[in-house]
Here is the input.
Amino acid sequence: MFYFRMLGGYTVTVDDEPLDPLPTEKSRTLLAYLALHPLPHTRGQLVGLFWPDLPEPQARRRLTQEVWRINSAVGKIGVDRVVITAGNTVALNRALPIDGDVLRLRTALARLSATDRHDWPNLSELTDLYQGELLPGYFDDWVLVEREQLFQAYANGLTRLLDAQKRLGDWAEAERVVLALRQHDPFTEEWVAEAMHIALVLRRPETGLRHYERYVAWLQAELVATPGAALTRLAQRLVASSQPVAALSAPAAFVDPAYQPPLIGRDAERARLLHVLEQVQQPWTTMLD
Here is the structure.
């Protein structure tokens, strides 16, 4: 069994034994490409993808050399050929048992289209498979495209799980999904808002405000920007929900420094949250001084 791990790293194992790294970067990426796209490819397609700047005769010789390097490496562990050529085509040897994390992830994501939700993958199945970006450390054009496509497909899959849990009213599970989304894409405001909203529903305003506070700190440090107005209003709701009911009857400007909400043993926390909201509501000229 050949197993290709390409998410968060790149290793190949054969019957649970690691294959020694292939000798060239081209041989490694060529094998990865054929594993991701196991149908036969013409030599012209492959040389155009991997050696676009070389004259075609020279590029074809390079392709032949890299196929030889791959098969020589697996030959050392007793495998005849993992890449086969037939006429003008090159492909992974489908007679060999092939598996991998990307193949399993694609299959799991496809199950999210099933009508019966019992056939859907659970959150743990998806997060166990997606251990990081596709082929980290490799920057071929085709790798960058497929990396982004898989990044988006995984985010879309998690979003579908999140929507389903919200419809069911399973807010605890929805929180687990949104935390996975935030880990996957921590600085997308949509997921920050989802995390804050779920914290509001679960009556855990401090949790929601921590999401907001971290996001604000990142925006100010990296982009010299402020969050959207809708997100700030949601933060205000979270602060208000953390106050005793009696305090809500007394109108006060939300960021009025003179306003002192009733405190129940959480003076420092309330002061810190109000300070963050004051900062993000300051004019741009103040921020850029």
In short: Residues 22 and 28 are 6 Å apart (CA to CA). The chain has two domains: 2-99, 105-288. The beta strands are 2-5, 11-14, 17-18, 41-42, 83-86, 89-92, 98-100.
